[in-house]
């Protein structure tokens, strides 16, 4: 078996895709259920002494703080993923996320234990950040490295759809709880805890599914040859730092806009400022997540037919066109306006998220691929989504209008589009260890693109 043909049979590819979807859905359910709790109840339960407005800012800030620890998770997972394998890291990150989420569900509030409550909440959110930092890279490489070259785009969309599915599940469960439990006292006392406690059930399912899949054939080949890099993170930043920066900025364009919904800002704005019904807003978010899911799947297919780069540019165009209409529609304080805003935004988000996995995997050489993918994604998350809800809330309070927030989203989108234009599309590039030289060259538009035939001719 050569590295150029090191792909799995169709049955194995389907098992890996299913395991990836299940695992990432559960991971992101845990992550997003926290963001919804931050937008809806944590300000009252954990930061009430700070006052209503400052308490909400602090609550949303805890959503962002976890992103600062994603690089730690990415560094650890990247190192060990390149050294001991993809599958083991996926199981560990899944368990870590589930434990942190479940513990939040039993956490005492400020009224019960004082300042220790928000401190413990923050620590558990940090654990979620570490887990999320390591999760995505492993999931991406497991599915993309199992796939044939002409189907990497749609294969890479599998871990991507876990994000909208996780958001759909989180918003659906939270909507169910606000619908069957009084949104007042009962929900604040115990109703909000149920979605967090459900994580313990989901984590068992995810663990069993992920343990059942085979290791990536690319990593298996590296291990058999004894070609594993001892310090992949150091090599990454020494030789490929420019790729990390550009690819991270691509993700900034998606992540900043995405966290208007998944980060809790639109939930708090719609239910607080606009006085819309909490359950109705959560149901609208659930529908938008379904659209995001479909758009992400379509983007994976488009990435295989028209290229990763072109699909991104179409998505960024949709996002840019929606930057101002998003709030024009939401500010009608009507459900049709909210639905239209969230659905149209979700189309752009799907188109700028679906191709990301395949493109990232094809940018970095195999010896540092896990480290490159995971760390780049984590840095993009910090620069983009980490404090996007907090920044949006601060802009709203400082200006009294959502126009400043729209400008913020437009600038982030243009940054992502500019970075996209700087990277080269490389569909079909061999991913195995025989083609390290080709993988390490020509990923940006500023460097010559060297094919494996040219590399072989020089040897």
TrEMBL record:
Gene Ontology molecular functions: transmembrane transporter activity
What are the UniProt keywords, alphabetically? Cell membrane, Membrane, Transmembrane, Transmembrane helix, Transport
- Protein name (database record): MHS family MFS transporter
Return the GO cellular component terms, semicolon-separated: plasma membrane
Location comes to: Cell membrane
Xref: PANTHER family? SHIKIMATE TRANSPORTER
Protein's organism: Arthrobacter wenxiniae
The record places domain Major facilitator superfamily (MFS) profile at: 16-428
Q: Which CDD domains does the protein's record reference? A: MFS_ShiA_like (cd17369)
Q: Which InterPro entries match?
A: MFS (IPR011701), MFS_dom (IPR020846), MFS_trans_sf (IPR036259), Sugar_transporter_CS (IPR005829)
Q: In its keyword annotation, does this UniProt entry include Transport?
A: yes
């Amino acid at each position: 078996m050569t590295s150029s043909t090191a792909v799995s049979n169709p049955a194995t590819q389907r098992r890996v895709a299913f395991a990836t979807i299940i695992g990432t859905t559960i991971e992101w359910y845990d992550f997003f259920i926290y963001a919804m709790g931050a937008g809806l109840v944590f300000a009252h339960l954990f930061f009430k002494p700070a006052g209503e407005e400052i308490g909400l800012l602090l609550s949303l800030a805890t959503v962002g703080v976890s992103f600062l620890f994603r690089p730690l998770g990415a560094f650890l997972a990247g190192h060990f993923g390149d050294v001991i394998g993809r599958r083991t890291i996926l199981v560990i990150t899944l368990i870590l996320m589930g434990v942190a989420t479940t513990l939040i569900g039993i956490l005492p509030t400020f009224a019960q234990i004082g300042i220790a409550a928000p401190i413990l909440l923050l620590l558990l959110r940090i654990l979620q950040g570490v887990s999320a930092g390591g999760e995505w890279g492993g999931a991406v490489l497991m599915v993309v490295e199992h796939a044939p070259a002409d189907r990497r785009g749609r294969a890479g969309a599998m871990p991507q759809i876990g994000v909208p599915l996780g958001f759909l599940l989180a918003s659906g469960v939270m909507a169910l709880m606000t619908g069957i439990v009084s949104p007042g006292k009962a929900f604040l006392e115990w109703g909000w805890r149920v979605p967090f406690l459900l994580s313990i059930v989901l984590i068992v399912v995810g663990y069993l599914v992920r343990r059942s899949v085979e290791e990536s054939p690319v990593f298996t080949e590296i291990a058999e040859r004894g070609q594993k890099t001892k310090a992949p993170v150091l090599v990454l930043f020494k030789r490929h730092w420019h790729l990390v920066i550009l690819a991270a900025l691509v993700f900034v364009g998606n992540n900043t806009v995405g966290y208007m919904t998944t980060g809790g800002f639109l939930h708090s704005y719609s239910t607080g400022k606009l006085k819309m019904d909490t359950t109705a807003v959560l149901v609208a978010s659930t529908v938008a997540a379904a659209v995001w899911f479909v758009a992400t799947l379509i983007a994976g297919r488009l990435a295989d037919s028209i290229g990763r780069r072109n699909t991104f540019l179409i998505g960024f165009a949709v996002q840019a066109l929606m930057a101002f209409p998003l709030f024009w529609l939401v500010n009608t304080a009507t459900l049709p306006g909210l639905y239209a805003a969230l659905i149209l935004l979700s189309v752009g988000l799907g188109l700028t998220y679906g191709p990301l996995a395949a493109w990232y995997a094809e940018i970095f050489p195999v010896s540092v691929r896990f480290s490159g993918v995971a760390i780049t994604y984590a840095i993009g998350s910090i620069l983009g989504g980490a404090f996007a809800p907090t920044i949006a809330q601060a802009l709203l309070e400082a200006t009294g209008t959502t126009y400043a927030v729209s400008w913020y989203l437009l600038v982030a989108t243009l940054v992502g589009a500019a970075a996209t234009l700087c990277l080269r599309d490389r569909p079909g590039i061999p991913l195995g260890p025989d083609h390290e030289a080709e993988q390490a060259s020509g990923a940006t538009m500023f460097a010559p693109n060297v094919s494996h035939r040219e590399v072989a001719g020089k040897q």
